[in-house]
Amino acid sequence: MSASRVLVLNSGSSSVKYQLLDMRDSSRLAMGLVERIGEQTSRIRHTHICDDDTRERRGPIADHDAALKAVAEELAKDGLGLDSPELAAVGHRVVHGGKTFTQPTVIDETVLAEIERLIPVAPLHNPANLTGIRTARALRPDLPQVAVFDTAFHTTMPESAARYAIDVRTADEHRVRRYGFHGTSHAYVSRATAKLLGQAPEDVNVIVLHLGNGASASAVRGGRCVDTSMGLTPLEGLVMGTRSGDMDPAVIFHLARVGGMSIDEIDTLLNKKSGLVGLCGDNDMREIRRRVEEGDEEARLAFDIYIHRLKKYIGAYYAVLGTVDAIAFTAGVGENAAAVREAAVAGLETLGLAVDATLNAVRGDEPRLISPAGARVKVAVVPTDEELEIATQTYALVGRY
Predict the structure, then answer these.
(1) Average pLDDT, integer, range 153-167
(2) 90-126 burial, b if ≥16 CB within 10 A, otherwise e?
C-alpha cells in the first residue's frame, strides 16, 4: 500500500483530539485538540511536529463539522491536508462496541447503525463518536474509515468474568454485562510490557494498571484479556478522579428512598462528584500528594482509599492469572506518581512484588523496570500510546483490502 498516513480522531461531546501518523515508521507528523465546540470560546491548538511549530486560534466553532474542517485547514497549512494521496485511512476511537465488535472494523452504514444502537450503554460517548465519523466520511467519502473500539480488547473475557450474577434473561434483553474500557491502552501496554521483558505477548501474564482521571485494571494472560475492572460502563472498579468505582448497588436505592435523590442526581453524584474529588475535593494526584505531605488528613484518607482499592485488584488479578510475570503502571497517574506505585505494591513482597526506590523515582518517556534486580515479578512503568495503537490497527486492517 503506497499511502502510509493515518489520521486518528477521538471525538468527544465538545472536543476533537487528533493525530496524523506515518505508519512507515510510526512517526507523528501533526497533532492537536479542538475544544469547547459549540461555544464562543472555542479553541484549536495544532502542532506540526516536524517543524516543532505550535499554533493556536480562538473563536466560535459551531459544531463537529466546523471542528473537523478547522482540523483539515490546519493540516493543509503544513502540506498535510486531508486531500493528500499519502492519507491511507482515518481511524476513529469508538468507546462502546458491545459484544458485536471484537476487532477494528471498516465503517459502513451497517456499522454506523450498530454503534447507534449501542448508545443506551454509552450515552455520553457513542453519540459524539458517531458525529465525528459522519463528519469525516462527508469530508472524504472515498477514504476508508475504521472504528477501533475501547471494548474490543476485553471481548476475550470468559463468560465467568463477563457475566453479572443477575437474571440471565433480563441481562441479555438489556445487554447487561462487563464490557470493560481503555482497551486500546491495555492492548498496547500489555504488548509493550512483553517486549520490555524480551518475550512474546503469548508467553507473558501481565496485570495492567491504567491510572488516570479514569482508571482501570486488567488481567492479561498470554496477550488476551481474561478480566477487567470496568463493567457495563466506566463507573465500576477502581477509585477514580470523579467516579466512585466499586460500591454496594443498594447505595443507589438508599439515596433514592431515604435521600430523595432522582436517578439523574445519583448518576451525576457517582460519575462526577465521587472518587477522589468526592473524598477530598481534589482529583489531581499531584495536589493530593502535596496535601498529604503537609499533613492534610482528608487528603491522606482519600489516598489510602485509592491505594486500598488498587491493592485489592492487584491481589484479585494475581489470583485470576495464577502466575504473574509483570505488573505495568500506565497513564497519567501510573506513569508519573512514584508514591502511588510504591504504595500499591507495599506489603506484597511475599507475592514477589517490590519496587526499587531509586528506579521508581526516575522519570522518563520510555518503558522501564522499577523492580529490584532479580525480582520474581517485574514491576514496570510503560507509557501508553492509544493513538499509535488505533493507527496501527487501522493501517493493518486497510492494508488487507
Answers:
(1) 97
(2) bbbbbbbbbebbeebbebeeebbeebeebeebbeebb
